[in-house]
Design brief:
Umud Fragment, subunit A, 304 residues, 5-stranded antiparallel β-sheet, 37% helix, 8 helices, elongated, 2 domains, 16 strands, alpha+beta
């Protein structure tokens, strides 16, 4: 049996060790077999392979790593990390959208760099068409599903009075307490965007509402001319609150006074506006979207 020394190189008998990106190649080859693409014989130019093309289209910057010099891959990964941090910190602001555009640009550029041998055989029109096709393919197949998944299951940004609030969607509705800021669907809660809800001569635009929970299940809310009380504790009145009356918050409901645009056509009585606002203020658990983070990556969102 042959002996090897620690200072000696590995024998050519042994296969090379798997690289850190090998699982990407494994899944790309499995996808190719699943779609029967392995039966299609395509002659790729130069040092291009199907696995390398698929991997570089899925992993940002991998196209630079598979080519030489690999220092471009380190620069791409550093830039990608910085833009990802900026995107998260400025999530919902124009700077965050700008960072997202640069993330896609770095990803697409790495894929196009891997496809360098193709550029040597194509004219200018073909290059522009292929670059646009790569941008659309990576944007629609990678970043659009990721964006939708984040908005549906993780974080959603909401703008209120010029500020952006990031809402955590996985927060359990049963854990909401009095004083928590939450996001919820207005009206019947069936649609997040578009449409509206009508009460008499008042039309309230549907969408997402945002505000603090003023009262929870079983709390008694009473209204007067200059204030309203929750379980006897006075609080500052909100716009268009009724001057009199009281209610007990039903089970599995919250009382949140809406901060939305309401338009009255013609001379609409204040009582009609207050009645519409009262119906919007009773929020069910089915309307719950998520709880607002008190802090988002060091940025305070809710002032005590």
């Amino acid at each position: 049996m042959a002996r090897t020394d620690a200072n000696e190189t590995d024998s050519l008998y042994y296969p090379p060790r798997a690289r850190w990106y090998s699982p990407v190649f494994y899944w790309s080859n499995a996808l190719r077999r699943r779609l029967w693409l392995d039966r299609i014989q395509v002659q790729l130019p130069g040092r291009m392979t199907f696995a390398g093309s698929a991997a570089s289209s899925l992993v940002p910057g991998l196209g630079f790593y598979l080519r030489e010099p690999r220092r471009w891959a380190l620069a791409a990964w550093l830039g990608y990390g910085l833009m990802l941090a900026l995107f998260l910190v400025a999530y919902g602001y124009p700077a965050g959208n700008f960072a997202l555009g640069l993330l896609i640009a770095i990803h697409v550029t790495g894929f196009l760099y891997y496809c360098g041998p193709f550029w040597q055989q194509a004219n200018l029109q073909s290059r522009l068409f292929f670059a646009l096709l790569a941008l659309l393919a990576i944007g629609l197949s990678v970043y659009l599903p990721l964006r939708n998944a984040v908005l549906q299951h993780w974080w959603v940004p909401l703008r209120l009075q010029g500020r952006v609030f990031v809402v955590q969607r996985r927060f359990p509705a049963e854990a909401v307490q009095r004083g928590d800021w939450i996001a919820y669907r207005l009206g019947n809660g069936r649609s997040e965007w578009g449409g509206g809800w009508e009460h008499g001569a008042v039309y309230a635009r549907s969408g997402l509402g945002l505000g603090p929970v003023l009262a929870v299940t079983g709390d008694r809310v009473a209204f007067s001319t200059n204030a309203f009380t929750v379980n006897g504790l006075p609080q500052a009145p909100r716009p268009h609150m009724p001057p009199a009356g009281e209610l007990i918050v039903p089970k599995n409901n919250w009382f949140i006074w809406p901060d939305v645009g309401i338009s009255g056509h013609g001379r609409t009585a204040e009582a009609n506006i207050s009645g519409a606002m009262m119906q919007l203020a009773i929020v069910t658990r089915e309307q719950f979207v998520g709880k607002v983070y008190t802090r988002w990556l060091g940025r305070r969102q809710i002032t005590p």
